[in-house]
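Q: Hi! First time doing this. I have a protein sequence and I read that you can turn it into a structure. Is that right? Here it is:
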Amino acid sequence: MIDCRNRCIHTFALLAIMLSAVTLIRCGASQAADPEKAYVDQHYPDFGFLPSPSQYKGRLFTLSQKYPKAEPDVSERPEFLKIDFQKNWREYLLAAQDYCFRDNVLGGDVADDFDAALLDQPKWFHVPWQHYGPSGREGVHGLTKEAPVQPQQLALSQTYQGGQMYAVAIYNSFGGYQIGKVWADKNVPNAKNVRFPVGTVVMKVLFTDVPSEEVPSLSNPLKWNAYVTENYLATNRVFKEVSLIQMDLMVRDERAPHGWVFGNYQYNGKMNNKNKWKNLIPVGIQWGNDPDVNDGTWGDYTNPIPVITRRNPHLKQTIINPDDNELPPTHLGWNGRLNGPADNYLSSCMSCHQTAQSPTKSPSSPLFQAATQVPPVGSKAWMRWFQNINCAERFDADKPTSSMDFSLQLAISLQNFYHWKDEAHRTIAGRYRNEQLNPVGDDVTEEFEILRSEPIESNQIKPR
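A: Yes, that's right. Below is the predicted 3D structure, encoded as structure tokens:
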């Protein structure tokens, strides 16, 4: 789930980091300098990986970063918040999906969808500092490297080795307001008192490079072309087609007992919807970790290879789609808690997200510790990750850290920033101008500064 998947997220630094970076500059009258701008006026890098302009002439990802300076009015909260998410969970998830698609799915080429920075007054926003590190944003769609895909993780027929997941997440204006508060000063981010307003919606779309013909649910696939690593263990980047596999949802809903509602959707091409994004079928909904449900080491509902979907009737804070004709076989999370096909079957959406802190003190899963420190599955130490904590509370209340209010993306962005500050090497950030998108005579100039792979000498490093 939305970076709260129990994935192997790389946090180690690049051997060389950019000296400076400037985001997309559009020199048009509609964006002239204005001291009364109603949005945070900082510039963060759009992406970290793309070939030089002489090698690539295609579309370019732009970071949506005109974060609102003021919290949106309560009248702007999504209409679907009026739906009872427990009694009418399916209606809630489908209405939330429609809300996410309204401004992001344009009805033409799917490659043009989810371009959140397209509008002069954007309604959806990205978290900055996702460009950094070996898993950083690629420059076609802004996808970041998420996790490996094990053979048979997606289907019994899946044998592909080295599979991987890539994803991009966006926050609505309520969430964008909080991102802007954290990143109002690009040199001194503020990690204190992070609390997303009621009405915040976060959605993430995930893609895999596992061949779609190996996974029955990926028939009739929706594909993007992206600049990703050749396989999960590789460091070299190549252009590959990746298939839509999953959508994650987080909603700050004041009726939720702990502040957040999580949703998950799995791609099922057999639904054959004209709008392929609508082939994302609700997996289920979660508003708590069911801390009293502990079925031992594995339990009857933990299912690493998804031949069938095993639903746990003992769960009170998770509802899983009961329709096997609609929902493809999926492994879910530990003991049947909500998780998607891209996620770890020994975790859950909420268990991961509640660990979001800065600085990070506990990993997003007990599995992501040294082998000697991993507690027995189902033990008291294990169940610490399946407690219920409230929004804006710290997972490690006994340690010096700040809550990121369930946003692992914010936690990672701050972690990346401080890693960058500690690095002793830089890379040259060269201007990226796409002549194909800006023919001679065009009155709009688009330029990018991106990470380069060429290390620079120490005497070229300028003071920060």
